[in-house]
Amino acid sequence: MSTSMAEERGETFLTLFRHAGRHAAALVTEALGPQGRSDILQERWGVPPEGFGDWLAGHGEADEVRILLDRWGLTRHQAALVAAREGLGREISAAVGSGQAAVTAGRVEKEWLAAPPEFLRLHSNNQPLPEVARRVQARLGTDEQAWECAFELLVEGFTGDLPTLLDAAERHAATGVAADVRLDPKSSIEWLIELVPRDLGPRLLARIAPWPLHQLSQGNRRIVQPLIDTADREVWRSLFNAEYRLKHRSDDGAATIERAFLLRNDPLINEWLLTGLTGAEPGRGYRLAPSIRLALLEGRPLGPDAVDPLPRTPAVHTLIAAPPSAPWDADLLRLCYDSREPGLVAQALRASVEGGERLLTAYQQLVAGIRLWESGRADELRTLLEERSNGIRDQDVQDAFAAALAEGSAQPLRTAAAARREQGDDHLDEALRVWGLRLPCDLMSYDLRHYTQDELAAASRDITRDPWYRVDWDLVRSRLADPAMRHHRRRTRERYGALLARADCPPDVVTALTGFDPDGLDLLRLYADRAIGIRALSETVFPPLFSSHAAGTAVDGSRPGPGWAPAVTPEDVLRHARPVQRLLPHAPREPLGRLVAELLRQAGADTPEAEARLWLALRRLTPYFSGTLPQLLHTAARLSEGGAPLDVVSAADFLTGPGPHEAAELVRGRLGGSPGPWVHAVRLLAAGFDGTLPELLDAASADPQDAPGRAAVVHGAPAALLGLAPREVVAAVVGRLDVPTRVVLVRTTTSADILRALVRHGNRLVWDALLDAPRLKNPSEPFGWGRAGLYSEVLVPELLAQDDPWLNARLVRGECAWARSLDAANTEAVLAGRPFGPREQPVPVLPGLRADFEDWTPDSGAELPKWTCNADFYTSCEPVLAMQALMAVRRSNYQDPPTSTLSVRKSLQAASTIAGAGRFDLLEYVVTHWHIRFPYGEHRDIQNLFARAVQQRSATEIDTELAAAD
After folding, report:
1. In the beta sheet, which residues pair with residue 650?
2. Has residue 873 got a pLDDT over 80?
3. What single string gives the DSSP state of each residue in 675-686?
4. How far, in Å, CA of 780 to CA of 545, rounded?
């Protein structure tokens, strides 16, 4: 068990114990002993139950009382208990006094008497304690002049303590600062801005000089909205230039700022977002999702209570009418085929027929023609097709356009489009690509978590009402029934997840596409129906190998919000999802308290003594438990009656806690050294065996019965159990397991021995699952193997050693696409047919692998796959790969553009291969695009050398130069 998971399970007890009854908590506190009480006293963020403080006040050691007093303070009852005691020290006695009143926590008083810069250093989030914030708000109240005075004093660098600052503010002490003067903050002011009355914050922030705004908003998203609410164009411009980064998001800060700007529905802001406003740093721009850029170009409002269409600035109208440039890209053009703005439709169709890349499909070209015809632009369509008739590649589409222009009617286009819609498989794949682009961000992007349910619901409405694409749900079901789809849910979600955006997505498809790492799009469907949501939660596990963000999303999505009324409540999530440890940090306090009280009653804890026994049992139990909250309290009630966790905890939970080490001897003694019992035990666990570990060992040692069924929840227990087996048995056990059980092991193991056995006894399904297994790339252990160890040093070499043509191609296209020297060496070996394992004969190369690049020409308009782009291919004997080595660029710093990493000698070596093979078209491509290799025009002599070789159709001069370089 990882350290992080152990900490979570320790926190589980503390989180639940806060809801203990007063008298029961006092009994538990006494029974915990010094070390147990110390564990709770070290908890900084939660408040322990009142009974815990009562016992410490009456019976605790002086150090325990001192910590209690400093962290949480004392109630009046606790103060009286402390005052009645002797020997606790003068400091405690002075703080408690006569014990007639409650005592504020020491840390609150310390912060209250500190100067603002000092007390902010006490907290990582630059926020005062809630009690300190309450005191500030109570002192200044609704006196706007007092708030403004405090603001000015703080900006000017006030160095006194908080009471002195507030005294001066209440007196409206003159600061000597004119009301219209822009201020440069000399200390942190954001904490005060968050406490002022809502309408006052923007007015105060409007007085801040524009240049330091990035210092205020950096790392503090709560202040962004007041900054934007100033409605000051200079403030907005400063935010754009200094803080607003949308090319790459490292957290949800950029997404928050983006939405805050977009929801203002301001034409100037929309222009900035589209054109990429830049400031001191040249080249900085903002790359919004294609669907959002399309909405801004069309004038569609993204915030409430706005006219539709929004006014658009002249610059935006110029973007629509001018040839495509920024903010245009292929994905944006692909969405414009049916835009409500005819100019955008014309842009998309023009780019499709003029460009070398197939931006629009044949069906989308037909739809674009229909939309132009319906908008009265038939003449423009005629002119475009007469100029570029060869830009439409499909014969039936050419015939339809010709017939439409000849007849003066769009009916031939509609007929051809209807025929295309009948091509079920192609039509579905095309629809999935389009709907994925209509989402506010990439389907598999982490950013998808940052969008609220109402924003996703708006995208869902657009996708559901799409008049041009329909879904054959029976076709979808048949595809999802494929074993490869069932076992590789991430890949399935990546391909079909856009279907979750449709309001008519059937429940069985929803269930097939959602997994244990849900985001807002999953919850949009799962939580819309209570029965579906509860069933999904019951079949979901949030394992330690994933971020706790998934569990937080599951809890937060059950809370009502603007435009979102889920049918599932937080109590439903806490009742049915597992493990409880992942959910509790995100659980609302009141629903959790109600549920705990109800479950305690059901468990029969109707007296303080019975409840105390249950809490003590729960403390022993949580390290071994990975079930739901009701199961946890029910099992704790059983344990409180006597016995050990081994006797009451399910085998799966026991084995994924600290149990394997405690029970290793028991398990090995019962299952022995032959594979049979181990195979049966692993299969039982994979099928969802819910008995205890002794019961599992009894069942595994007995004669195997019929094959167990499949489990709904993927658990780490089978891998944990097999990890206890003797090394010489592991391979034999894996060899006798069925494929679904091996896939369960793939998803949960981090054992090198099990991985090797899975590879050697695998088939394509198992190999594919191994390459997709998230735990291998992101192990839960804080100091685990990681990608550089278990994955690349054990798994990939073992897979290559199988010398399977299909597997080699899979590895080249996936794992060798990282542009490393080792990737280039492995790829070259695969293409040459050299074996990696014991095989002596050459390994056939999958024909499709060579087809990825062999026939490519610069005029084809096709994009070469990522795996071909590697600077270390300069030694390749394949001309296309050598060309890719020449064109590979890398950024060496943040200021300069990417450049080629090849030395002159290596460039000559790659060029010699290209010219020697007679592929002067490739060498000409390199010469023409020299500015990509060297943006500042370096090595013009080498460029001219290559140009002469192209002109002469000879490699002689290049070879001579290469020989001289050697």
Report:
1. 692
2. yes
3. HHHHHHHHHHHH
4. 4
